[in-house]
UniProtKB/TrEMBL annotation:
The keyword Cell cycle applies. Belongs to the CKS family. One of its GO terms (biological process) is cell division. Transmembrane segments: none annotated. This is Cyclin-dependent kinases regulatory subunit. SUPFAM superfamilies: Cell cycle regulatory proteins. PROSITE patterns: CKS_1, CKS_2. GO terms for molecular function: cyclin-dependent protein serine/threonine kinase regulator activity. It comes from Brachionus manjavacas. Binds to the catalytic subunit of the cyclin dependent kinases and is essential for their biological function.
Length: 96
């Protein structure tokens, strides 16, 4: 069934990039109707996308379409965080 999932191209505004994912009817039955899904939940039904995407909106007339967004600079934020984690602290860089 995961081969039948349709992923839109990404589109964006000044703050977010967006995409929508269309599920086949069998999988759409697994989507909660009264709340947004966590990343673990949408991954568990077969949706595959890179990190940082958030299920942000339920379009009630079409519950089989999941609407996702993430910050426009999400990738840059991750690189900065990774670089900061790899920088040696001043204490550990001191040679005795």
């Amino acid at each position: 069934l995961s081969k039948e999932i349709y992923y839109s191209d990404k589109y964006s505004d000044d703050h977010f990039e967006y995409r929508h994912v269309m599920l086949p009817k069998e999988l759409s039955k697994l989507v909660p109707k009264d709340r947004l899904m966590t990343e673990a939940e949408w991954r568990s039904i077969g949706v595959q996308q890179s990190r940082g995407w958030q299920h942000y909106l339920i379009h009630e007339p079409e519950p089989h379409i999941l609407l996702f967004r993430r910050a426009v600079n999400y990738g840059q934020q991750q690189l900065v965080a990774q670089d900061q984690n790899q920088m040696p602290s001043k204490q550990s860089a001191t040679v005795h």
